[in-house]
Write a structure and sequence with these properties.
Blueprint (H helix, E strand, L loop, with lengths): L12 H9 L17 H36 L1 E2 L2 E2 L19 H10 L15 E4 L1 H10 L4 E7 L4 H16 L3 E5 L4 H7 L8 E5 L5 E6 L8 E6 L4 H7 L4 E3 L9 E5 L5 H14 L4 E4 L8 H7 L8 E4 L2 H10 L3 E5 L2 H5 L8 E2 L13 E5 L8 H4 L4 E3 L16 H13 L7 E3 H11 L14 E2 L3 E3 L9
Parallel strand pairs: 4-5, 7-12, 10-11, 10-15, 11-12, 13-15, 13-16, 14-16
Antiparallel strand pairs: 1-2, 3-6, 4-6, 7-8, 8-9, 17-19, 18-19
Helix pairs in contact: 4-5, 8-9, 8-13
Length: 469
């Protein structure tokens, strides 16, 4: 076509035909023809329009950045106000380039790219969770630790707990990772959906020393020895091979341990550990074939008590009992009072809490606890030296004749580990001083100064502590 190119899209059909064929039809009434724009003018107009739009976009972006930087330096965020003299977000806490350990930890805390999953460092690793469990594990250091995950709490109490746990972790050379809110779903996954309180620690399993028997304890002391069972190199790396078990008491007594046979509920297992630790038991013996595993759920229920108690594993409880009995250990089978009424304790003494006395003053003791539903197995029960139970104080109301195994364990542990009454043993020097103060060979009523058992440097006298002063 020889005519000029038409760029105006609003040109109607009649005008286009007139421009093409050289004639002109009459336009509709009220129509105003638009000017014809050449190709050069159209290209120039389009370029001016694009440049104008790009300039407006750049101006808008610069204005938004300026407003954001102003807000980041002067606006309140939570409880803190960032001032202009404070280092910018890209600089370090001390105004440096931000390459120090504190700056790296601070930047990692602010990251929001939580992974989908956290793999175990080793196949035997496990995730411990909860403040009490994690802090106890770090305090007693019986495991190998890999990594600690701390959730950034807001309250002052949580921040104080974080400092304590972080201090224990740094003392144990544990890598600490602070995480934010976007890690909560992942932390819930690591704890199996159970409450973790913002603390998750990856560690090796808790040591469980395999034993075949406990050796003789000739006199009350602070240690006793065990006979170790065979274990592989990997098991020995976790459990160790120390055959001496230490125990501490506030008074002179023989050791006292619990043998758990058939306890499958992890909550009951953890509660027994907690009661045994609180009341002063010297160790836990676990039957490996029919008892609940020491999983993180059990450790959470124990509230950190399992980290300090010596734990020994027993593969064959029947043989273990026989060998320990030959070494002078006495076994007390915990049974329900109905067992004594039905004649199941024939030939063996039955003791209650009120009649058991202080067995740990006479010999080393082991109390056996059975499963929650069926109780102690008969082949284990018949090997015990004594029967032990808790007599109910309410009878004739329904068929409830026993306690939960963890509650019964706590009451019976208290019966074994209660401090003995005052024996009245005083030295001869103290006896003579009392005689001088009170006058004569017999002082106040209730104080007999005549010895009942003379020794070279020590005497037992009958003293009533309530009338001494």
């Amino acid at each position: 076509m020889g005519g000029p190119r038409v760029e105006n899209a609003s040109f109607n059909r009649a005008e286009r035909r007139a421009a093409a064929f050289g004639h002109k039809e009459k336009p509709p009434e009220g129509y105003k023809a638009l000017p014809i724009v050449s190709e050069e003018q159209g290209n120039r107009s389009r370029k001016d329009f694009d440049d104008s739009r790009a300039a407006k976009r750049q101006q808008s972006s610069s204005s938004w950045r300026a407003k954001y930087d102003t807000a980041a330096n002067t606006k309140d965020y939570g409880d803190e106000k960032r001032s202009a003299d404070r280092p910018t977000r890209k600089s370090g806490l001390d105004g440096s380039a931000g390459n120090s350990k504190e700056d790296i930890e601070e930047r990692s805390r602010r990251k929001s790219n939580a992974p989908l999953a956290i793999p175990y460092t080793t196949p035997a690793s496990e995730f411990l969770y909860g403040h009490s469990v994690v802090s106890a594990a770090l305090k007693f250091s019986r495991r190998k630790f890999y990594k600690l995950y701390l959730y950034n709490g807001d309250s002052a109490e949580v921040r104080g707990q974080d400092r304590e746990v972080r201090k224990l972790a740094l003392a144990a050379n544990v890598e600490v990772t602070r995480v934010g809110h976007d890690w909560l779903n992942l932390m819930d996954k690591m704890s199996g959906g159970r409450p973790h309180n913002g603390y998750i620690l990856e560690a090796s399993p808790l040591p469980k020393l395999p034993v075949t028997s406990l050796q003789a304890v000739p006199a009350p002391q602070s240690t006793f020895k065990v006979t170790l069972n065979h274990q592989s190199r990997e098991e020995e790396a976790i459990n160790g091979n120390n055959s001496t078990i230490r125990y501490g008491t506030g008074y002179r007594r023989y050791p006292f341990l619990l043998l758990l046979d058939g306890i499958r509920d992890t909550g009951n297992m953890g509660a027994i550990f907690r009661s045994a630790h609180f009341l002063g038991a010297d160790g836990i013996l676990l039957c490996t074939r029919n008892s609940a595993a020491l999983s993180p759920v059990t450790l959470k229920a124990a509230a950190g008590a399992a980290e300090s108690l010596p734990i020994l594993s027993v593969d064959q409880p029947g043989s273990f009992i026989e060998q320990c009995q030959r070494n002078g250990w006495k076994f007390y089978a915990a049974v329900s009072p109905s067992s004594s009424d039905s004649g199941m304790t024939t030939g063996r003494p039955f003791y209650s809490l009120s009649s058991m006395g202080n067995p740990t003053q006479e010999h080393p003791c082991i109390m056996i606890l059975g499963s929650e539903g069926d109780g102690l197995r008969w082949n284990i029960q018949k090997k015990a030296d004594f029967m032990l139970g808790i007599e109910p104080q309410r009878t004739g109301y329904g068929e409830l004749d026993s306690l939960n195994v963890s509650v019964a364990a706590a009451l019976l542990c208290h019966g074994f580990l209660k401090k003995p009454k005052t024996t009245g043993k005083v030295t001869r020097a103290l006896k003579e001083k009392l005689a001088d103060v009170l006058g004569g060979s017999r002082g106040r009523e209730g104080i007999a100064l005549s010895p009942t058992k003379d020794k070279a440097d020590e005497s037992e006298v009958a003293v009533d502590p309530q009338r001494l002063f």
